[in-house]
Amino acid sequence: MANVHLRPGADRRSSPLCDKDGVLRSGTVYKAAMTATGSSGCQFYEFVWCNRAPPRTQFFTWLLVQERIQCRVNLLMKNIILDATCEVCQEAPEDCDHLVFRCPFSAAVWATLGVDTTDCRVPKFQLSPDDINSLDANNSVNDPVINWVFKDLMSNLERNGIYDVLLMDPSLSYLMLFDPDDSAKATEAQMLSSCRLVLLPVNNNSNPDQSGGGNHWSLIVFDQWTQYGPRLLHYDSADGSNFNTADRLANMMQRHLLIGTADLMVVRTPQQGNDNNCALFVIAIAKSICSWCERAAAGGQEADWSATLFREVDDAKVAKLRIELHKRAQRQNNDEGC
């Protein structure tokens, strides 16, 4: 480095990924990566980007179809507000669909423009063809499938008035492991500590530079709901093979959580009969726990979900779940749209 001499003038950039003004555009990099890897486009690509709308409108639409705009339901999930009720109409939770179509104010705007929105709705999170194919028999299920089901489970909980249960995007728990910024980890952990129940999918990918790596999923449950909490539980359908990764994540959480917790507890878990069903077992266990949440909120007397877990999760039921999810994903991707 001592032999490198910087010129006093402006930089001369010749990267093919820069625009005419010399600015590096992430969109160009993204398109090049997608082309190089042969990745298939998502279902809403043409609707969002192939039009004459201003870039900001396109970006808002991109957020909207993924339900990532800052509506009150999303703000409540992030513990920024305490109530998701629409402030305009006071009639329903303000999710993306309510904000754009269902609120009387929004409906009146569309009616004034002469647009019939009776059958319109905000497209829900959709899976790519590759994600749907991962639900074929004997395939390992992609992590977007976990996220897709988790979003649906959280929506069901919210419809039952349960807003303090968080099912984390698989990528977020991965970032918590490899993000070098301790302050970011502390912020994430503080957000988790305000929830009664948090479900974190854990993947054994040990390479932070390799997207989609790893070959096994398990589930950490942070429980502040039951009388046994606070506690950190680990559910692993492959005889504890993912414990080391889960323990690293649990240790990171323990350093930053605002309350004290015991060490990560290895919980007796229904076991998978092949090498391809770990993600589906995570989904099935999460579904069973969410069912308990709904029963508990309705006055159920079960101390926790352990009594029903083995009745609701086994190889046969997981095989049936794979078929059901495959059909539902295909149907949704065929039917979505306004």
TrEMBL record:
Residues in Ubiquitin-like protease family profile domain copies: 125-289
GO biological process: protein deneddylation; proteolysis
GO molecular function, one term: deNEDDylase activity
Swiss-Prot/TrEMBL keywords: Hydrolase, Protease, Thiol protease
Keyword field contains ATP-binding: no
Cleaved signal peptide residues: none
Pfam families: zf-RVT
Family (UniProt): Belongs to the peptidase C48 family.
Protein name per Swiss-Prot or TrEMBL: Ubiquitin-like protease family profile domain-containing protein
Organism name: Panicum miliaceum (Proso millet)
High-level lineage: Eukaryota, Viridiplantae, Streptophyta, Embryophyta, Tracheophyta
